[in-house]
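Try this one yourself first.
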């Protein structure tokens, strides 16, 4: 898995874009990206457009990030779920816990 991160300075939103498999092997790297994102502000978008697999550790990492964001009066939004990943979110009912958007652009507009 590769993780890209960028700050949308005009909106004070950090976009984190992992790719490939998001599983236990990448938990530490993703937690580090989320922690660094909080240094620039409490609003984060995790764009999963190029992620084709998530496991329970990945889901727990995202939930932890969402809780941290809410403690800072921010939010962690999800965008771009591919069908296999969307099914996992639905089966675990995390689609009810997260604000999920079809595209990164929609998530950015909502967070602004």
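Now uncover the answer:
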């Amino acid at each position: 898995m590769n993780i890209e991160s960028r700050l949308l300075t005009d909106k004070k939103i950090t976009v984190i874009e992992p790719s490939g498999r998001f599983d236990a092997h990448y938990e530490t790297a993703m937690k580090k990206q989320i922690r660094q994102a909080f240094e620039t502000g409490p609003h984060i978008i995790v764009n999963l457009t190029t992620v084709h697999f998530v496991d329970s550790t990945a889901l727990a990492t995202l939930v932890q990030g969402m809780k941290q964001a809410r403690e800072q009066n921010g939010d962690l939004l999800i965008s771009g779920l591919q069908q296999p990943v969307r099914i996992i979110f639905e089966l675990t009912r995390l689609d009810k816990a997260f604000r999920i958007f079809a595209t990164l652009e929609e998530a950015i507009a909502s967070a602004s």
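Discussion: The chain has one domain: 2-111. The domain at 2-111 is CATH 3.30.750.24 (Transcription Regulator spoIIAA).
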